[in-house]
């Protein structure tokens, strides 16, 4: 029995495998670097991050990649003593505006595979597979042959974009696709058929796909065939995991699943889900991963072992739990940065011992070289603090504490310089609203020296504070936390990542002015946190 189905801090699009007594889950990382996260467990309850495989410049360079593109849907498999990891590198998302809503939807997907003899070890450089669609996975049959599956994308106007599941033989030794690529499954009336995984059991080939889109109608569909190439018969009982039509469930958007047989012979599904902030439809935590027990029926289909309504209730954590991060010789594993495989250009852990030094780079919304180091928000309510030593000499230089979803959605409490106000603190907000794309708080003058910055959230709102003299000074404005969510987005602009909170530094003059951060703390708060003062102005609400 899995008492807490949601795996805290996990990204979405899970792929799960078991090798002996070891379980591994790989998840997407999109524009965040390094690419792909792999967690390990021996009991399906306690998990630890063991690998981020795509970390060298020869493996991955995401500079210029749009928000929520990059690494999609990694799939882990294991055969003949070797681990395989397939994934999509997405370079373009969205439809061409000149054709309108019914026009062509041109996207660029490239699929790759990397391999390793040990999950924690160095992974190979990528081997190119194809560019016909996304969500690749490898199926290793019992006869030793392997096959690549992926969604076939059809960009043409009037055609089904999600044109079916494509399969082609793959030579694991020569590392090449060969033979004919064939569509083996066109999906059901739910549509948006993607995320294929193939299994063999009791003489049947079982195909699991995601359908219904990754939003509120998301679902996992099961089909089977006696022949590898089909035709595949759809499970007569409907989707095997879904929360569509059930707004009462704590876990929403359930879909994109992968099956694994546990060591004791029971079966489980890892799947994508999301948790709206109570009373809203805002998923500030982004898409997450959950585990669901399933069982085989007498007629050879799958059903949940327990209703999603029961399993899908996240276990309550302690009311307050603090993670404190010190900056030693290596970056704490919870932290990531954006896009570039050359982190030395962004930050240093040796420039000032005991500090994370960020070098001012491009703007906070840059898609190339942005000096921003952050960790995922993993609770609706939280408090995050850091101490920054930063002496800007120009309005082009800034550094501070940021709550960041993507380049179009963030609240950034940054220290900067103004000719009239001198050194000061101000919150810069980017909002997913064409009529009001950005907003600025009032200016708060600062004395010289290090400044401690704090942000507190109750899931719906953000309050920023600072102190340099022993007393906290809360900013007058209250900021909207729900705009940092999957749902708050511009048309055609994907939002898949969830909110991150961390540290940033910019210097658009090109002088790379450094900011030194002495530690970081993240405190989970389950209860709503109220501001001590009444706000004079609400930003982004």
Strand content: over 45%
CATH topology of the largest domain: Jelly Rolls
Number of strands: 41
Largest sheet: 10 strands, mixed
Radius of gyration: 24 Å
What's the pLDDT, averaged over the residues?
A: 91
Q: Helix- and strand-based class?
A: mainly beta
**How many domains make up the coordinates?**
2
Walkthrough of the structure:
This protein is an all-beta fold. The protein folds into 2 domains: 15-186, 5 Propeller (Tachylectin-2, Chain A), CATH 2.115.10.20; 320-539, Jelly Rolls (Sandwich). The protein is built from 1 helix and 41 strands. Strands 24, 26, 27, 29, 35, 36, 37, 38, 40 and 41 form a 10-stranded mixed β-sheet that branches. The longest helix has 4 residues, at 308-311.
Blueprint (SSEs and pairs):
Blueprint: E1 15-19, E2 22-27, E3 32-33, E4 37-41, E5 48-51, E6 70-79, E7 82-92, E8 108-116, E9 127-130, E10 137-140, E11 146-153, E12 162-171, E13 176-177, E14 182-185, E15 194-201, E16 204-211, E17 219-225, E18 233-234, E19 241-242, E20 252-261, E21 267-274, E22 287-296, E23 302-304, H1 308-311, E24 320-325, E25 336-338, E26 347-348, E27 356-359, E28 371-376, E29 381-389, E30 397-406, E31 409-418, E32 422-430, E33 438-440, E34 444-445, E35 451-458, E36 461-467, E37 473-474, E38 478-480, E39 500-507, E40 514-525, E41 538-539
Parallel strand pairs: 38-41
Antiparallel strand pairs: 1-2, 2-4, 3-25, 4-5, 6-7, 7-8, 8-9, 10-11, 11-12, 12-13, 12-14, 15-16, 16-17, 17-18, 17-19, 20-21, 21-22, 22-23, 24-40, 25-28, 26-27, 27-40, 28-39, 29-35, 29-40, 30-31, 30-39, 31-32, 32-33, 32-34, 35-36, 36-37, 36-38
């Amino acid at each position: 029995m899995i008492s807490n189905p949601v795996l805290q801090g996990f990204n979405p699009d899970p792929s799960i495998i078991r090798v002996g007594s070891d379980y591994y889950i790989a998840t997407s990382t999109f524009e965040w670097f390094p690419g792909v996260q792999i967690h390990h467990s021996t009991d399906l309850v306690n998990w630890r991050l063991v690998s981020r495989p795509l970390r060298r410049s020869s493996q991955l360079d995401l500079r210029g990649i749009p928000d929520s593109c990059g690494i999609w849907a990694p799939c882990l498999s294991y055969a003949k003593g070797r681990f395989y990891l397939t994934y999509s590198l997405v370079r373009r998302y969205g439809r061409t505006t000149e054709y309108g809503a019914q026009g062509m939807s041109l996207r660029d997907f490239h699929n790759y595979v990397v391999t390793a003899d040990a999950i924690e070890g160095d992974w190979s450089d990528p081997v190119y597979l194809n560019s016909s669609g996304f969500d690749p996975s490898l199926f290793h049959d019992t006869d030793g042959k392997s096959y690549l599956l992926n969604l076939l994308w059809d960009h043409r106007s009037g055609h089904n974009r999600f044109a079916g599941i494509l399969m082609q033989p793959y030579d694991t030794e020569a590392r090449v696709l060969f033979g004919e690529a064939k569509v083996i499954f066109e999906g059901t009336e739910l549509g948006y058929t993607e995320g294929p995984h193939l299994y063999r059991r009791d003489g049947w080939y079982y195909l699991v796909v995601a359908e219904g889109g990754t939003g509120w109608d998301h679902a996992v569909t099961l089909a089977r065939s006696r022949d590898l190439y089909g035709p595949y018969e759809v499970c007569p009982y409907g989707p095997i995991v879904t929360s569509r039509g059930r707004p009462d469930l704590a876990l929403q958007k359930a879909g994109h699943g992968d099956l694994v047989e546990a060591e004791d012979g029971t079966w489980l599904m890892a799947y994508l889900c999301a948790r709206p902030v109570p009373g809203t439809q805002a998923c500030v935590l982004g898409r997450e991963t959950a585990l669901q027990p399933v069982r085989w029926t007498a007629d050879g289909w799958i059903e949940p072992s327990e209703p999603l309504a029961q399993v899908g209730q996240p276990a309550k954590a302690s009311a307050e739990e603090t993670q404190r991060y010190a900056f030693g010789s290596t970056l704490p594993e919870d932290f990531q940065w954006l896009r570039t495989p050359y982190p030395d250009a962004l930050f240093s852990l040796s420039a000032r011992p005991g500090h994370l030094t960020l070098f001012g780079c491009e703007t906070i919304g840059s898609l190339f070289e942005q000096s921003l180091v952050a960790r995922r928000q993993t609770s609706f309510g939280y408090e995050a603090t850091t101490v920054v030593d930063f002496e800007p000499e120009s309005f082009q230089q800034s550094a501070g504490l940021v709550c960041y979803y993507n380049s179009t959605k963030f609240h950034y409490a940054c220290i900067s310089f103004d000719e009239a106000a001198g050194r000061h603190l101000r919150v810069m907000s980017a909002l997913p609203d064409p009529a009001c794309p950005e907003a600025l708080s009032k200016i708060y003058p600062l004395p010289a020296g290090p400044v401690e910055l704090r942000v507190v959230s109750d899931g719906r709102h953000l309050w920023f504070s600072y102190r340099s003299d022993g007393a906290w000074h809360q900013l007058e404005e209250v900021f909207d936390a729900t705009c940092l969510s999957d749902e708050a987005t511009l048309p055609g602009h994907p939002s898949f990542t969830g909110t991150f909170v961390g540290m940033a530094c910019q210097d658009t003059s090109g002088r790379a002015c450094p900011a030194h951060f002495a530690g970081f703390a993240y405190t989970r708060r389950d209860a709503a946190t109220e501001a001590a003062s009444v706000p004079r102005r609400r930003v982004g609400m």
